[in-house]
Amino acid sequence: MKNLLTMKRSRASTPNAAAMFPSILSIPHFILMEILSKLPMTTICNCRCVCSYFRNLISDPQFAQLHLSRSQPSLLLRSYYERESSLCLVESIDPCVVDSGINGDIRVSDKALLKFKPNCDLPIKGLEVLSSCNGIICLYKPRSYDPYVICNPVVDEYVIVPQVEKGSICGSGFGFCSGTNRYKVLRFLSLSVGFGSPGLIKLEAEINTVGTNLWRGVGDAPLYLHLYSGGCFLNGALHWIVHDTENCFESMCCFNFGKEQFQPFPGPSQFRGLRGQLQVDTMKMGVLKDGLSVSHHPGNDMLEIWVMKDYAVQDSWTKDFVIEIPWLDLYPGLLYLPLMVLNNGEIFMVSASVLFSCNMRDGSIRKVRVSRISSVIIGATTYIPSFISLRNAGTGRYP
């Protein structure tokens, strides 16, 4: 032991000790960024607590963009974690963390789980996830849509969007404009333009650029937007299904955040001959395999999932999956949202607060249980985690 101490002292007293035993801090910062950006999210979050140098490095906008370019889709769950309502990130869902559990259910190991611990004053109770982009989440209060909270739980920052009462808010959306690097909240106001007749109603759209106190009108939206079936963000636009007066599929439209305009959007050409038959209450839009998707229930316990391979190209819509779900006809009012496709053939889906998986190889359907999380999911959505800061988005409260 004495010899060991003597050896350590002699090393420390050597003039070239720093050269002989270099610190990790001597590695160029751009190489450290490369290394850190490839680590799991939980590891990166732990690295922020190591020292101020690591914290500043991970907080660098250059690192945030590098990490975002490599970040893979994960699941964001609004559930009960150890009896406490919270947001949880289920990262790296693959065969190494997915095992067969009790009763044949799929069990996701807590190794893939990251619980967000927001500021104690973050008004998260009673809020639901509207949507997200670039790791930035828009939370809202159902029915009242007040408040809107824009947050990034990874970096623990949030902004509250001010409300201006004008009419009855019946829907909302959230997106990002890459041209201006700004996040925007879109809301729909149901306004009467006549007296007493329910037919004389228009859907007015207003937009708020996060960080400002102003809501600006962007014109009237298509009256029969099916606000509950879509509003999914992709390629700088929000997308919806448009229905007719009989609540059947008619077309699609999108809102471009760069132009701040509503535009027609090509739906599956195969749906043209089914007008009057496809009830939009059985349809749900989403993003699957980097493309727009539409899931719907044509009957006979079958669920069809259509995916747009090439954005805005109508002929690229293909029926990728046909899934037999035994209880579909028993609960015809439920919506089924595909969340992600795993490499092992599993499709993770959510419906009626239940997370489940469909195996396209053997046709089996199993519930998905996440360790230490209640089996009842308040909400689930696909989420790409990032270290993007809201500091450039305007005023807000930050740690």
Shape: globular
Helix and strand composition category: mainly beta
Helix residue percentage: 10-25%
Strand content: 35-45%
Order of the strands making up the biggest sheet: 3-4-26-25-24-23
Taken together, the total number of domains comes to 2
**CATH domain fold name of the largest domain:** Neuraminidase
Distance between the termini: 46 Å
Oligomer: single chain
Transmembrane segments: 335-358, 370-390
Organism: Rhododendron simsii (Sims's rhododendron)
Protein name: F-box domain-containing protein
InterPro entries: F-box-assoc_dom_typ1, F-box-assoc_interact_dom, F-box-like_dom_sf, F-box_dom, SCF_F-box_component
Report on the structure:
There is one protein chain. This protein is mainly beta and 399 residues long. It folds into two domains: 43 residues; 313 residues, Neuraminidase (6 Propeller). Helix content is 13%, strand content 41%. The protein contains six helices and 27 strands. A six-stranded mixed sheet has the order 3-4-26-25-24-23, with no helix packed on it. Strands 14, 15, 16, 17 and 18 form a five-stranded antiparallel sheet that branches. It has a four-stranded antiparallel sheet with strand order 5-2-1-27, with no helix packed on it. Helix 3 packs parallel to helix 6. The two termini are 46 Å apart. The N terminus and C terminus are likely disordered. Pfam families: F-box-like, FBA_1. Keywords: Membrane, Transmembrane, Transmembrane helix. This is F-box domain-containing protein. InterPro entries: F-box-assoc_dom_typ1 (IPR006527), F-box-assoc_interact_dom (IPR017451), F-box-like_dom_sf (IPR036047), F-box_dom (IPR001810), SCF_F-box_component (IPR050796).
